[in-house]
Amino acid sequence: MKKMWQAAARMGVGAGVALVAMAGIANARSTTNRPASIVVWPKIVVDTSARWLVAPTDTRLMLSSTNASGIKQAHCFYINATGHCSNDGAGCRDATDCGGRGECVPSWNETDFDVVLTQEQPLAWYASDGLARGQFPLEGPFRCNAPFVNLQCFSDAQCPNNVGCNTGQSNLGSAIPPVPEDPFIGALVCIQFTGGSQSVPDQTATRDKLYGDATILTGLNPARYNAVGLEATGNPVSNGQLVLADGGNYASCPGVLILSHMFDGAVDPITNNVAIQYISDLTLVPCSNDFSTQTPGRSVAQFLVFNEFEQRFSTSRTVDCLFHATQLSRIDTRNPARSIFSAGVAGTLGGQTRIRGVGGVSPLGSGLLGVAQANFPTGTLSSAAYDLHQQGNGRSDLMILP
Amino acid sequence: MRLVKRSPWLMGLGVLLAGLVTAPGARGDVTSDESGTLIIFPKVVSDGVRDTLIQLSNRTNSFVQVHCFYINASGTCSLTTDESCEIDADCPTNEQCIRVCNATNFELALTAQQPVQWRVSTGRLTTIPSAPCRPGQNCQCTVDTSGQLVCPGLLIGQNQASFVPPVGSQFVGELKCYQMNSDGDPFPGNALKGTATIEDLSSAQISEYNALTVAANADVGGGGLNTDKELRLNWTGTGAGELNYCPASLVFTANAEGVTDAFTGATISTELTLVPCSELIEEDLPAPVRVRFVGYNEFEQPLSIEAFSFDCFLNRRLADLPVSGGGVFVNGNQDLWKIRISPRPINVCYSGSNRGSSCTQHSDCGTNVQTGPGGTVLGCLPASGVLGVAEEFYSLGGSVGTAAFNLRHEGSRSGFGDIITLP
Asked: Is B8 a residue whose pLDDT tops 60?
């Protein structure tokens, strides 16, 4: 009897483990490789007067549809995370932008807009400019349906006898505003909608058709990264609440982000010129946002830093709406030379940092997304943006639409 | 006797847990943001003008052994041997572009969570002891009398021996590595991730991309990764199969070649690098690739290159696709292109006297058709899948800014998939 119980228990545990294992394999998480239904650009920088950076800066954004047939609508939210100096109200990323005379007071607001993409269409715009009416590729004028095909139109109302305007596939209905201030730092989130008069978050068979790219141009120096995608599960969205979780409406955010980096101050091993040293920056954004009440996601990023000796260091910082470390070695201290991200402290040139979002404000979650940029700030500016790696599925996150 | 008794249930549990812990991918995809057992750096340059910094990391808390091979993909014309080439069309009439695509093998080891990096041209020496950097001092590598890099840090290897060998200054090609066990066989630990930074030696302009990784099936008893020295990319993420399938197609959005960037005034050019998913390392043969390009501009107008062939490696500006100076995804055809690259659905001879020819059966490949280490006939097989990376060049007044980026993947291949034969 005892043996039977043991056998049954073993079978049960085995089956349970198998189910857990299967679940781990079956559920998806964010991706920078595949088209998706939610696209997140974690870092958008505009500084056309070079107030923050060494040269005028703008971000060129690309949004593309891989849908082979029919339009797709993207409902997008610019998230303005630009702070303002307590002394003069100037835009700032952190206190260093306030010249040491004031604090950088954080702020957050969102601006939403729609983009309609035709089948297989790529679109691009500068964040400082946006795209206004007349700047989209396919806006008409179009032709009325027969028998009035010689009449030009933009909408059905402009055609006689209710024959309708043959707009085919067009970008009509799109308008992309410029970012709300300059200088600006923030993020962009676009969600694939079905389009049409009853447009809803797209969970149809043709979901997951969008992908995005960003190129941050500082002078002649481009830094390009892939926007992060979250694939839809096919589960319809209710009450404008987008659940990012296993069994939810969209793929989970990652449980851990992994950043490969050279430590700040490491001399470039290629040129071995001591004047060329790595300084990397990091941008993190919460997966969760309540756009309806203008409540940004908030969590604590725990950093676990490994050097080549397998020694590890740790620190943590709050991510409130958007976290931008202008250099890694300012994450844990105001004295970069004493930072655990400094090559002198870490002891080796290269490192690997694991970043986990914890905490979070209910009902929002604590997941994080991000992008990094390696920089040689001395001499001729040189930099390269790159996506973070990821591991495991995070807990549930939530986006609430207005 | 009791000590050596093994419980099948516990073994099963172990296998399941191993599968749970090591399977990082949610699906059978090649990724650039997850770790894997096979890692691919499609674009490695050390040509005297630019050099590459490789960063390779162990994502797990276990000790990891790695086998790597550089594939030198420089090509020359068959008769005019002093002329370099990418494809046959680069050579004089009736000549072919011959790529040797020979592999240089080496092995290394990574401790738990360890990141390492090396400069491709110089490689890196193992030096014991290697003192760490100190606050207030420059943290830098030095070049040994042998010409190899010596850096502060810990490398597992024989003292004063190459941790990674140098490739010199006439190398363009790729780097592939796979995780192995102590017997030298592929091991499905899915621990590897990496980045590559390509740097101009005079201007220090850098481009960085994430290496591509392929997760392996850890279910050893259920048709997972085995020891037959053939890596098969034929796994959907569930069931039998060794490593995830390559994508059915690649897609990326590029500025039209030669277009002027409105913000900087620079002229933009894009260089596309493609490598085959299949690789015949043991047979020292270049893998034949047959792809189709389809582009759509912002006006939804399509253009295509229907049958494009190359062996082993392609590194080419959009201005030169399909032929030098005859690019179709260029400025005159609008400003923006979304380009999809798909392996053609045909079979090709991987070896034999008709290597590279289209075929329907092995006998179409002529004589000397070879067999892989695991017994797979390397004759008439599906044209290889492809992976790649792209790099943009912003040129203005003699200065050039660069940025690399990873391509998007759509779908997965099916059926035979791809094969990498190991030495």
From this structure: no
Q: What is residue A380's predicted lDDT score, i.e. its pLDDT?
A: 75
Q: What is the pLDDT of residue A27?
A: 52
| pLDDT beneath 70, residues of chain A | 1-27, 379
Q: Is the pLDDT of residue B9 over 50?
A: no
CB atoms within 10 A of CB B100: 16
Q: How many residues does chain A have?
A: 402
Q: Are strands A83-85 and A104-105 parallel, antiparallel or unpaired?
A: antiparallel
Whether residues A268 and B199 touch (CB distance < 8 A) is answered with yes
Contact assessment for residue B89 and residue B96, using Cβ atoms and an 8 Å cutoff: no
- What is the CA angle A103-A109-A110, rounded to 5? 150
Residues forming beta bridges with residue B260, ordered by sequence position: B267
Q: Is any Cβ of chain B less than 8 angstroms from the Cβ of A351?
A: yes
The pTM of this model reads 0.91
User: Residue A220 in contact with residue B261, Cβ under 8 Å?
Assistant: no
Q: Which two tokens stand for residue A365?
A: 């979650």
Nearest 5°: the CA angle B157, B160, B166 is: 85
pLDDT of residue B20: 39
Instruction: Tell me what the pLDDT averaged over chain B comes to.
Output: 90
Q: Which of B10, B21, B29, B33 to mutate to test the interface with A (most CBs of A within 10 A)?
A: B33
Cα distances from B111 to residues A44, A269, A351, B64, B406, in angstroms, run 36, 22, 13, 6, 28
> What phi, psi does A346 have (nearest 5°)?
-70, -35
The answer, for B33 touching chain A at a CB cutoff of 8 Å, is yes
CB contact under 8 A, A349 and B117: yes
Least confident of A299-303, B20-24, B61-65, B247-251: B20-24
Contact residues for B171 (Cβ-Cβ < 8 A; gap 6+): B44, B45, B46, B47, B70, B72, B74, B120, B121
Asked if B423 is an interface residue toward chain A (Cβ–Cβ < 8 A), one would say no
Q: What are phi and psi of A237, to 5 degrees?
A: -85, 135
